[in-house]
Amino acid sequence: MSHSIIRSRRFWFGVSYFIGLVIISYLFTWFGKDLYSNTQLLLKNEDGDVIQAAPFNPLIMPPFGSDRSGYNLFFQLIIGAKFTILFVLGICLIQILIGTLLGGALAYTSSKLQSFVQKVFKPYFFIPTVLWGIMWMAPLMLESQQTGLSMSIIGKQFFILCIVTLPPVIIYISQEINLFMKNEYIISSVLLGASKFYLFRRHIWLYLKEILVILFLQQFVQLFTLLIHLAFFEILIGGRRMSSDLKVFSLTNEWSSLIGLNKNELLMAPWLVLAPLLFFTISIFVLHLMIQGIKEQYNTRFISNDKKKSGERSSFEAKYQKMKVDKSSFARMNLNSIYREKDN
Known CDD domains for this protein (predicted)? Predict the structure, then answer.
């Protein structure tokens, strides 16, 4: 799978996209404070008369307009990119790591225990993940209004989202391993005495590498969607603060928080919601490109291996057919004389 990733241009395009966004976000945070901290509430003409108040549309303040507080929406999205991408990236890494360990351990247990675990988690799957997130993360929003931006709150949110999204990953990986274990050559290895560790190291892990990268990117997409759903209930990553006039602000400018805080502006100032949605849409599209690129490279490698094997088989058959075998190639032997020689 490593060779498939290296050769996939779509994959590296996606990696460059996300790394570039994070780097630009940090550069703006460190050196562009004058750009994103300035506000403009009123727009005046040459005579000094007020002609429009914030929020300004994208034509007046390109490229994405401003919010009601006069902050440039584009700079807010750039500042929040690092929180959005790195937060989701960390959760996905933990999911894949713990999911592989627990899923692999579950796959090696008895079928009765696996069936019991699946029955225990089955009711969990019928409850939307967003409801679990709301239930556990809502109290943190009240805490953030008192303490401000805190790594403690971000850590708690990180832990909660890891827990609520982990069970499906564990079950999926265990089922994939069980399905793979039904292959004939795996059954033959078991009958020949192969240990569980040997099977995992030489066979199962090679198979899992083919799906874990794709699963990682798919979880990235699902977490983006989950953050958007949570934001509509004002569950914001990093917390929120409330001004003296009871306006709610995000502490991190994370993309989904900008959607949730401006959802009521959809009719009056739709760009406040559409701009962060555009960033999410582009990012999800890039993730799908990465997945397709990896799958295409894997399929290409699989087909080329099949062609190579078929070519070797056909060359062997051609050589075999060229061999001329007739009666003169054999000598008639008497079995009795052979046995007599052995006795002597």
Answer: TM_PBP2 (cd06261)
